[in-house]
Write a structure and sequence with these properties.
With about 210 residues, the chain is α/β, with parallel strands linked by helices. The protein has one domain: 3-Layer(aba) Sandwich (Rossmann fold). Helix content is about 40%, strand content about 15%. The chain has six helices and six strands. It has a six-stranded mixed sheet, with helices on both faces. It is globular and about 45 Å long. The chain starts with a helix and ends with a helix. InterPro entries: SAM-dependent_MTases_sf (IPR029063). It comes from Maioricimonas rarisocia. Pfam families: Methyltransf_23.
């Protein structure tokens, strides 16, 4: 975990002054097939920001979805000691390099199966103190080697853009097996996403009144 309280306060200010940390929702199409391959009973979004990605990944009503972010009140304490899957999207580049191994060790203690999406270039956003929000900017190879210190398997995934890298920490299953699982749960995810988007539209309409 990040132990620098002043650093965390910078992100608390960002979250209090507007919508921040929602970009991971755009990764639903890339992460969903991996979730359906694994079919975890519990999913923790570690460093979730204000994103609803983990709710969108709830492919079955019995799946437990959990959120954790040290900079957001109410979800600033780890809710579980174990989860079947941890998703960590657009987080590690925000972690000071001296804390990277501690954060990865904590994630590994929760689950040996995780999905990482990490930026490899500076951010457009700056913190209230003027520091670039991406304080650890490293190459995809650097991140792979760093992850391999904590996870036995690190498999590269197709990233959304050249300035991102994406990994999962388990070995892929044969494609035929994956297709069977995909078609069995896809509609549940679509329904869940439609419900979430409908709720957001209602919330937006109320604010506009």
């Amino acid at each position: 975990m990040v132990r620098n309280d002043e650093f965390i306060r910078q992100y608390q200010v960002l979250h209090q002054t507007g919508i921040y940390g929602c970009s991971s929702e755009k990764l639903i199409a890339r992460i969903l097939p991996e979730v359906l391959e694994l079919r975890p009973g519990s999913i923790l979004d570690y460093g979730c920001g204000q994103s609803r990605l983990v709710d969108m990944l709830q492919y079955d009503e019995d799946v437990q979805v959990l959120r954790y972010d040290p900079a957001i009140a109410g979800i600033d304490t780890l809710p579980v000691q174990h989860a079947d899957l941890v998703i960590n999207t657009d987080v590690m580049e925000h972690v000071p390099e001296d804390d990277v191994d501690d954060v990865l060790a904590e994630i590994r203690s929760i689950s040996d199966r995780a999905i990482f999406n990490i930026a490899t270039a500076p951010a457009r956003c700056v913190l209230p103190n003027g520091q670039n929000a991406h304080c650890t900017v490293q190459s995809s190879d650097w991140w792979r080697e760093t992850l391999q210190r904590h996870f036995d398997c690190v498999e590269g995934l197709s990233a959304s853009r050249p300035t991102k890298c994406m990994f999962k920490t388990w070995q892929s299953q044969p494609s035929k097996w994956l297709l069977k699982k995909w078609w069995g749960a896809r509609e549940n995810v679509r329904r869940r996403t439609r419900q979430l988007m409908g709720t957001e539209r209602q919330h937006t309409d109320r604010r506009a009144v």
